[in-house]
Amino acid sequence: MRLNKSRGYTAFLVLNHIILAILAVLCIFPILHVAALSLSSSTAASSGKVVLFPVEFNLKSYTFVMQNNDFLRAFGVSVLRVALGVPINVLMTIIVAYPLSRKKSQFRAKTFFTWFFLITMLFGGGLIPWYMIIRETGLLDSIWALVIPNAIPVFSVILLMNYFRDIPAEFEEAAYMDGAGHWTILWKIFLPISTPTLATVTLFSLITHWNSWFDGLILMNSPTNYPLQSYMQTIIINIDPTRITQRDLDLLKLVNEKTTKSAQILIAMIPIICVYPFLQKYFTTGLVLGGIKG
Amino acid sequence: MVKEKRVMVVFLAIILIFVFSGCSKSQGNKTVPSQQKQEQKITVEGKYEPAINLVSVKAVDATVKFLENEDIHNNVWTRTYKDELGINLSYMWVVDNSQYQQKLSATVMSGQMPDAFVCDLQMFKLLYDSDMIEDITGVFEQYASPATKTVLEKDNLALLCATIEGKLMGIPITDASVASAPMLWIRRDWMRALNIDPPETMQDVLEISRRFVNEDPDRNGEADTIGLAVSKELWSAYGGLHGFFNGFHAYPHIWYERDGKLVYGTVQPEMKQALAELQGMYARGEIDKEFAVKDINKVSESIANSKCGMEFSVWWNPYSPLYLSQANYPDAYWQAYPIPSVDDKPAKSQYSAAVNSVIVIRKGYEYPEAVIKMLNFWCDNVLANPNEEIQNTLLGSLDNPDVVFYKYTDFHLWDPTTMLEAYHNVRRALAERNPAGLNIDEYKRYQIISAYFEQGIKEAWVEVATYGDKGSVSILESISRDRGMPNAFYGAPTKVMQEKMTALNAMADETITKIIMGEPLDSFDEFVNKWKAMGGDEITEEVNEWYKLNKR
Amino acid sequence: MQARGKERFKRELPLYIMLFPAVIIMLIYSYGPMIGNVIAFQRFLPGKGLFGSPFVGLDNFAYMLKMPNIWNVLYNTIFIAFMKMVMGIVVPVTVALLLNEVISSAFKRIVQTIIYLPYFLSWVILSGILITILSPSDGIVNQILGSIGIKPIFFLGDARIFPYTIVVTDIWKNFGFGTIVYLSALTSIDPTLYESAVIDGANRWQQTKHITLPGISTTVVLLSVLSMGNILNAGFEQIFNLYSPIVYSTGDIIDTLVYRTGMQNYQFGVATAVGLMKSIVAFIMIALSNQLARKTAGYRVL
Predict the structure, then answer these.
(1) Does one domain contain both B117 and B255?
(2) What is the separation of C-alpha B490 from the centre of its chain, rounded to a whole number of angstroms?
(3) A124 contacts C279 by C-beta, under 8 angstroms
(4) Is a pLDDT exceeding 70 seen at residue B45?
(5) Fewer CB in a 10 Å sphere around the end CB: N or C, chain C?
(6) Residue B486 pairs with which residues in a beta bridge?
(7) Mean per-residue pLDDT for B285-312?
(8) Between chains, do A127 and C263 touch, taking CB under 8 Å as contact?
(9) Chains that touch B (3 or more CB pairs under 8 A)
(10) Which are the contacts of C279, defined by CB distance < 8 A and separation ≥ 6?
(11) Residues B345 and B203 in one domain
(12) SS (HEC) of A189-210
């Protein structure tokens, strides 16, 4: 499609490929390095011999992590969180986005409700009132505390709402003539043609749930209920040398070994990497379609 | 901060030593029932029938390990409390140590109170202001056992820290206050290389500093060493200057009595002479020319690279970061010395109250004395009446040193002299080559120190330099006897202090840094005037008002 | 009139039903805590709670302005957020333009796949990685720098460097996402525009200038506008996991200050006051930027 192939252009192309290749290497390098660390012997790791490939290859740190009940339990909590949280998020996104995507003539209260949801993105009430309400509604220390209060991802709602809004009116008008109600239009007409955006919404929700750590730390009453990222947050110890107290000395002796920590980081990434290619594909097409429409 | 990982390596080595030599020795240990004669009965008074409930909260960390089938809700301490005292101890939540403060904050702030729990001094004050904690003055008087009272009164600042307006509002958890006192650390191998005697006076210190710079103590043929390590933070736990000033009878950051009133050390005239010396040292290149931009991590680095051989720091300095020297240069050995004086008046090391946390009891809790009883149980049976069997059951067994039982409960107090006693016990055991009678902590130290002398494990020097003969702990002892200068102000921050102290201290740091780097000494007087005008006088007034009320 | 209203309600009823569960959840868990903002005007005492604590008017706001570090923190926040914002547009747009020139679709896909990955990892995980590789003593980055003669750099422990470490690592995490977005905007440009440009004799650079850049300008404006509302969001999760007291002077931001003031110093009134101020400023910023986007790009964000 592009025709002019001057020498300058060829040089540019070569340079371009090199730049992009370097960029990609820079991006992935830290992750590969940590992977290499996790597969090296701890002496090699701490003496700085490891760069991109494991030195004195072994799986000890993985065996160690796999015997670590806290880690496995936390992994399980995170899986459960995703299994409950993602379907709820997606369902909520759909049934909120649809009414908000209606024209004002179809839904008079549309503006009011749009703002109703938007405002929650802008204002919070602070940690303590939030904690209080979660406790008063009996969710504290349960998996639902991580799922219910975040049931409506407002950002995803906006995304899907915009997508719905751009669906040509003819689609629903035909159905409307046939006597179909809102539910039917949503389920039978809108959803089937929205799969790319739904995939995007699913991805967002999945990532958000898998990656959340703060709520788990505050809302759980026992480390045994921590989701994985909360657990990881507590083991990535960052001791401040200006304030070491006598009590910390004990802990210093136990600071996680480099290889073990690396292994835990890697394992925590696995679910993301597993769904990554699959969802990436959907995610991109979803956005492209959105782009053409918008 | 990331450097701490290296500590791991050292400690792994030490633990290995312990495990290997421990196998044989601990058996011998058991066959010598040295303290058999001692009273072994557990002493308890007033068991609750039927048992009562006490809800608390708890922090655990990676060092808290359990026996099989046990956990924080079911272990030797929960069983002991139940069986011996009739107290069902349960936890509202148990979180990682790093989360304790946040979780407690969320719980308490949202209006929920455990029956008894540990909190920091700031929350302690807030809980008092909010009328949420019980006044235990009477309960403590009535129920605390002599042993408990003795422990709490040993550190003369402890109970006062938990007293507000004359009412005892909680039980202070004490670290030894003197543990924050500075001492002088010097590379002994360098001193030996240059034929230097241990410093007796501050003049000696200056001399050592000069020679460390000029005479190539590391024998690498390069003039790459500095005399005294100083961090840009100025007052950090290591590479700090408190100790230096103490040698000149100046006591920055603490309040002490002068002519019947409390004065703030940072603005006293004694500061000037010390500053003049520091200025000279800087000019001669004995202090890093770039110290003003080098933080504490850089100090660790220069220690690790064997670029400095002298610094002022606290007793545990070998654990971090001095071990780095030895890790890189196997013969490096740091020795602690008491702070020498500039004149014939002995120097005093400054320290502040070490009560960082308090056990409080919820206002309206039906059995406030239950907490005292739990503490009595600890003090009577573990502290006041130590014997092997009880130590093994309640503290942790020597056979399984990773599982430390006392960490399962927060209702324990450490005698502030424990560290000093441990020093003497270890020393005796080393002299007699017999570890009998040592508790789990002491035994570990004994093993490590023996490994240094008997097996030549050089990494073990960190224990030798602390708990070994003439180690830093022995200096703490003299500090706690008569060579210490305690901070006379131990109350909660006063109003103006809260608002302005940070800014005033920042101004002080700036002035001091500039003077060291060559600004005329007179700017110190200017600073003092500014300090007074900008709120220092107000704060001094507030502190003295407090002093009038709390003076004993 | 009445009948029409009734009919209308009947028609709209399913829409209300759809919204119902979400509205309830939002009322409880998002609007409920908002009542907590009254703490900003109270001397909050935990025992007395929200309704019993004494009101102190604007004292907390006055205290906030007197906090010795407040302006410093505000500066840090805006500095870091602004840098992130600018770099968050420049880098992805550039990479997207470069990627767009790549002919081999396999290469393109590989690069996309790689640069996109960090976006999906949490700051907890990325911090773990960063703390490992940036360690001044044994981190790989300093080892590499050391091998070419550069002294160890304390990326996370040097106050002068910390903010830049934050910006660069933030770009590392997020630019992949931006790139994909701009790339899809690029692919949606009508190819016939290029064809006619070529016929008119335009070279690559002219094509880029007159077709490509205008083609993605809507997306650029939209995303910049969206990020303008974030001028006070310098990234709590990232900084919370990476900072330490050593770098407070340049790395402490409003959100971390609020967190520490409340959770570690127990001054909830002050913490809430600061948080409320932040929300209000953010709200104004978003409203303004929305307006701006409508005028300049004709784009309705909502």
Answers:
(1) no
(2) 16
(3) yes
(4) no
(5) N
(6) B351
(7) 84
(8) yes
(9) A, C
(10) A122, A123, A124
(11) yes
(12) HHHHHHHHHHHHHHHHHHHHHH
* Residue B313 main-chain phi, psi, to 5 deg: -160, 180
Find the domain containing B293 and state its range: 180-351+486-550
Record: contact A222-B112, CB cut-off 8 A: no
Asked if residue A196 and residue A93 are part of one domain, the reply reads: yes
Beta bridge partners of B386: none
- Among 3.40.640.10, 1.10.3720.10, 2.102.30.10, 3.40.50.970, what is the CATH number of C59-297? 1.10.3720.10
- Closest Cβ opposite residue B94 in set A127, A222, A253: A222
Count of pairs with CB atoms under 8 A, one residue in A, one in B: 99
Closest Cα in chain A to B238: A242
Residue B185 falls within a domain, yes or no?
Answer: yes
Nearest CA in chain B to C247: B295
With respect to residue B462, please indicate whether it lies within any of the assigned structural domains: no
Q: Does A252 touch chain B (CB under 8 A)?
A: yes
B483-526 tens-digit pLDDT: 999 898 887 777 788 777 877 888 898 899 999 999 999 999 99
Among candidates B1, B130, B502 on the partner chain, residue whose Cβ is nearest the Cβ of C47: B130
**Chain B, nearest residue to A135 by Cα:** B110
Residue after which a domain boundary falls, among B341, B375, B408: B408
Residue A269 distance to chain C (closest CA, Å): 7
Kindly determine whether residue C176 and residue A9, on different chains, have CB atoms separated by under 8 Å: no
Are residues A152 and C116, on separate chains, in Cβ contact within 8 Å? no
Q: Which residues of C touch A229 (CB under 8 A)?
A: 122, 124-125
> What is the secondary structure of B340-367 as a DSSP string?
PBSSSSPP-EEE---EEEEEEEBTT-S-
Task: Name the residue ranges covered by the structural domains of chain C.
Answer: 2-38, 59-297
Query: Nearest C-alpha of chain A: how many angstroms from B474?
Result: 17
Domain with A179 in it: 67-293
**Residue B50, preceding bond cis, omega within 30 degrees?**
yes
pLDDT (tens digit per residue) in B107-156: 998 888 999 999 988 889 889 988 999 999 999 999 999 989 988 887 76
How many structural domains does chain A have?
Answer: 2
A251 in contact with chain B, both atoms CB, cutoff 8 A: yes
Neighboring chain C residues of A217 at a CB cutoff of 8 Å: none
Taking contacts as CB-CB distances below 8 angstroms, the residues of chain C near B304 are: 137
What pLDDT does residue A19 have?
Answer: 93
Chain C neighbors (3+ CB pairs < 8 Å): A, B
User: B171: helix, coil or strand?
Assistant: strand
Looking at B408, B423, B446, the residue that finishes a domain is B408
> To probe the interface with C, which of A5, A6, A27 has the most C CB atoms within 10 Å?
A27
CB-based contact C138 B6, cutoff 8 Å: yes
Q: Does C46 touch chain B (CB under 8 A)?
A: yes
Write out chain A residues lying below 8 Å of C133, CB-based: 30, 33-34
- In the predicted structure, residue A107 carries a pLDDT above the cut 60: yes
Residues A145 and A199 in one domain: yes
ipTM above 0.90 for this complex: no
User: Are B115 and B100 contained in the same domain?
Assistant: yes
Q: Are residues B222 and B250 in the same domain?
A: yes
More confident residue, B503 or A107: A107
Rounded CA-CA distance B456/B13 in Å is: 13
Give phi and psi for A57, each to the nearest 5: -50, 130
Shared domain check, B191 and B107:
no
Tell me the nearest-neighbour CA distance from C138 into chain A, angstroms. 6
Count of domains forming chain B: 2
Query: Is A284 a member of any domain?
Result: yes
DSSP string, B58-69: EEE-TT----TT
The gap from C-alpha A57 to its chain's centroid, in whole angstroms, comes to 31
Angle between helix axes B440-454 and B4-31 (nearest 10 degrees) is 100
Q: What number is the average pLDDT over the span A219-242?
A: 76
